[in-house]
Amino acid sequence: MKFRINHSFWAYGLLSVSALLASCQEPGEALNDRKRRENEAEIEQYIKTNNIAATKTDEGIYFFQTKSVPTGQAPALGDEVRYHFISRRLDGVFVDSTDMAGNNPATVILAGEQTTGITLGRYAGILKLRQGEEGAVLVPAYADGGRVGSLLLPQYTPVRYDLRIVSVRTENQQIEDYIKTNNVAVTTKTDDGVRVALTQARPDSVAIVTGKTVTLNYKGKLLNGGIFDAGVSPLTVRIGDKQVVSGFETALTKLRAGEKATIIFPSALGYGNTSRPQSSASTVAIPAYSPLVFDLEITKVE
């Protein structure tokens, strides 16, 4: 699989920078132009001094690989990547890192412009590496959207990120790992990836089919256990009216009145590449490309 940077994500970041520059007065514009040239010169000198064979991307980021694992799984849009990083200024001053001693890597879902919790520089580097591989990116300040200036790394300072990819998991792999870790006994799996695990069966009760109205209690969770919908009141759904996401409705049609189940389905049958905000202060947001888990109890079918 070829590595491809999501250009809409980069366009979003660079357009944001452009909008910021356009809002400045002329002295601000001159300063940013000068800092950009200084960043480029500093990075090019760093590459020459350290004899680095780096490749410059279209976005102005310099990448070089330090460990290759050709058989490693390549990351793609929607995948979960766990990775370690160290960030340093080009003068060698340490800025930040993950907890390597405790083997506690950072985690990111590659979601294009919906991606959160990572700078553009680190994102670009991750897309260049496979599972098990290591590399680094040299990033001008203007191309590192998502990074806030600090005492150790001021606003206009270029940065080096050293990266190591611990794991890459597709949504299906994430779901299967969840099922295994939580001992979920799947009783039905559809062709499009809906899993249903009956925890209380009522084989002789009313089946849920198109046109039926279903009343149920429920709780919605992410694979990491975060609750995005506490289901504080019963939900009523008329099957066939598309009142809920498709994965949820498909799972309901595999159940009967009085049954309890855990259902799991991929983001393509949920909210896809769109994130959802918190529904209350006690719940979590749904990130883009998130598989969803629901615990259900069917109380009425009519």
From TrEMBL:
Gene Ontology terms for molecular function: peptidyl-prolyl cis-trans isomerase activity
Occurrences of domain PPIase FKBP-type (ranges): 78-169, 211-302
Superkingdom field: Bacteria
Record carries keyword Isomerase: yes
SUPFAM superfamilies noted in UniProt: FKBP-like (SSF54534)
E.C. number: 5.2.1.8
Keywords: Isomerase, Rotamase, Signal
InterPro entries, per the entry: PPIase_dom_sf, PPIase_FKBP_dom
Residue ranges that the Swiss-Prot or TrEMBL entry lists as coiled coil: none
Reactions catalysed, as given in the entry: [protein]-peptidylproline (omega=180) = [protein]-peptidylproline (omega=0)
Leader sequence residues: 1-22
Family of this protein: Belongs to the FKBP-type PPIase family.
PANTHER family to which the protein is assigned, alphabetical: 39 KDA FK506-BINDING NUCLEAR PROTEIN, FKBP-TYPE PEPTIDYL-PROLYL CIS-TRANS ISOMERASE FKPA
Protein name: Peptidyl-prolyl cis-trans isomerase
Organism: Spirosoma soli
